[in-house]
Amino acid sequence: MAATVSDFMLEHLHQWGVRRVYGYPGDGINGILGAVGRNPGLIELIQVRHEEEAAFMASAHAKYSNGKLGVCLATSGPGAIHLLNGLYDARKDHQPVLAIVGQAARISLGAQYQQEVDLASLFKDVAGDYVQTAMVPAQMRHLIDESVRIALSQRCVT
After folding, report:
1. pTM higher than 0.90, yes or no?
2. Residue-wise pLDDT tens digits, 20-68
3. Inter-residue contact 119 to 80 (CB < 8 Å)
4. Distance in Å from the first CA to the final CA of the chain
5. How many domains does the chain have?
6. Is 10 part of any domain?
C-alpha cells in the first residue's frame, strides 16, 4: 500500500521529536488512526476516555517535559469542541500544544452536514497564533512545520 497523507504526517511529526499523541477515536480521524497502526513504534497513541482528557494530557506532557510539544487528537464536531478546556489550560500556562482535529469532507462543508463545525472560528481564541486546515496533501509539510515552530517558539497552542 502506498503511503498516505496521514503516514507522512506521523513521520514528519516524528522528525520534530513527537513520540506520543493523546487522542480519542472518531470517523473524522480514521486515516490518522490507520497510519498509527501501519507504523508501529513511530508515534504512540495514548487512547483516552474523552477528548477533554486528551487535551489536558497534551498540556501536562508539555508542562512536565520542560516545554516539549504536547499533541492531542480528536475527531470533527463535538470531538473537536471537547478539546477546548484542556487547550485553554495549555494557553493560560504558556505551553506548546498542537491540536489535530478532523473535519467533514470538503464537499459537505456548508451543507449542515452531521457534526460540521466551523473549526477556524472555534479555535481562533485558544489557538489564534496558528489555526489552519489542510485542503490538499501538498500543504501538510508546511502546516506541520509552521504549527510546531510557532507552538514551540511562542509557547502557545496551535
Report:
1. yes
2. 999 999 988 999 999 999 999 999 999 999 999 999 999 999 999 999 9
3. yes
4. 31
5. 1
6. yes
